[in-house]
Amino acid sequence: MRKIVIAGNWKMYKTNSEALQLANQIKINTTAIKKAGIIICPPFTALATVNEVIKDSPIGLGAQDVYWEKEGAFTSCISPGMVRSTGATYVIIGHSERRQYFGETDETVNKKVNAALDNGLKPIVCVGETLDQREENITDKVVTKQIKGGLAGLTEEQMKSVIIAYEPVWAIGTGKTATPDQAQDVHAMIRQLLAELFGNLTAENTVIQYGGSVKPDNANDLLSQKDIDGALVGGACLKVDSFSDIIHTAEKLL
Ligand code: PEP
Asked: What is the CATH number of the domain that holds 86?
């Protein structure tokens, strides 16, 4: 059975001292969690600080992006090795905000995914359609292209370390959530695509998270869907109560 994994994307929020406080609270509020996976993804600046708090707990630590080069004259970029050196073992790649504001493409996502895997980081690869694309009825086509491009050339072995996050762009930070049925349809399509690309075992074992205004009051319905194996949470992960509520909901479903 696949695990349910709840990841929190802190985006550009939390100074070091705020991050320290939130990580501490999350750790305390999730001591009873035995089955659900938990990952927190603070900004780069707080990774090492947060690692000090959670390193002896089951909470995983992730970055929100990574560059593919090992080192060099790439002002502002952070390499996979640098991320690893903070204690982080996960990295979000291809978030729609990176695609929308910073020119991320399926090709750059693929380079980052490869670089992450080569350096022992587990990528959380984000895909999802815009509102226009959903209204044009091309959601499956868009998501298929993102998955084929982003995961191009990966082996079944490498896929064991990959998490996919389906995040309809129109649901991110808007308060609009895909209905459980809408989300389940796309998740099932993604799993079928993974079977075609990497075989049935990979498809069965890959964690596919849903992201887009997940909150304590909709988490149960979303996470109960057959092909939804967790959530990538933005807004609701910045407050300990809402984030731990979602985690406790996941735990009850396992
Ligand atoms: C996200 O940032 O990945 C996200 C899903 O944000 P929110 O939960 O705020 O929609």
From this structure: 3.20.20.70
Name the domain count of the chain. Answer: 1
Hey, which of 14, 167, 169, 245 would you mutate to test ligand 1's pocket, going by the most ligand atoms within 8 Å of its Cβ? 167
CA-nearest residue, atom 2 of ligand 1: 234
pTM: 0.98
User: How long, in residues, is the chain?
Assistant: 254
Tokens of 7: 């990841």
Could you write out the DSSP letters of every residue in 68-93?
SSSSSS-TT---HHHHHHTT--EEEE
Amino acid found at 36: A
**For a substitution probing ligand 1, which of 172, 177, 218 has the most ligand atoms within 8 Å of its CB?**
172
Half-sphere exposure of 39 (CA within 13 A, CB side): 28
248 catalytic, yes or no?
no
Query: Which structural domain, as residue segments, surrounds residue 113?
Result: 5-252
Structure tokens at 146: 């993102």
Q: Which residues line ligand 1 (CB under 6 A)?
A: 9, 167, 172-173, 211-214, 232-236
Instruction: Give the pLDDT confidence of 211-227 residue by residue, as tens digits.
Output: 999 999 999 999 999 99
